[in-house]
Amino acid sequence: MSAMETAGKEDMPEDAERKGLGTPATRAGILEKLVSAGFLERKKSRKTVQLLPSHDAVSLITVLPEQLQSPLLTAEWEYRLGEIERGQLAPEEFLDGISTMLGDLVGTYQVIKGTEYLFSPPREVVGKCPRCGGEVAELQKGFFCQNDSCKFAIWKNNKWWAAKKKQPTKAVVSALLKDGRVRVTGLYSEKTGKTYDATVVLEDDGQYANFKLEFDQRKGGSR
Q1: Which residue, 92, 117, 142, sits at the end of a domain?
Q2: For residue 165, which of 143, 152, 150, 184 has the smallest C-alpha distance?
């Protein structure tokens, strides 16, 4: 928050009405949006939490025109908004200026080679969240609801699956989200040391995604 308050302070003119990024009332919201969009990552270390730019954030800065990266643009727009507030500038004139600037940037922008390799691939949606109905997507460590207020997750290193020497795959999770159950082969039995087939059932209690096994009644038994 303090870094946002002083961002670009040295580059801004002395008569700038407001310096830094955002306002005291909007800075926390800006950070949360950057986190949810994948441009900031929270790194926890004991009692401290750091906000660090993600790989995609660094890539975005790499391809953005320098004019859009400059804090001077923030200072200029703040000045123009102040003129609108005082009745010295029409809102339409301010918006026309932005449109003209964007047109110039698009017309003169030189595409950087290799940008297709800079950004992470889009998150693939595997199904609907059983809690909120939002989209569940696959990330590096598991399958997570993309609704910021929902904490539904199926972790790839889940202990229940690890004990059976299996890891939830995209196909398995997709079936669990669609039907609530999926047939899985080659599950490992800690009791016998052998493998078996069973139906895995998803039971979400609103806090954790839990799993249980169902067996063919003709074969019976449990593992």
Answers
A1: 117
A2: 184
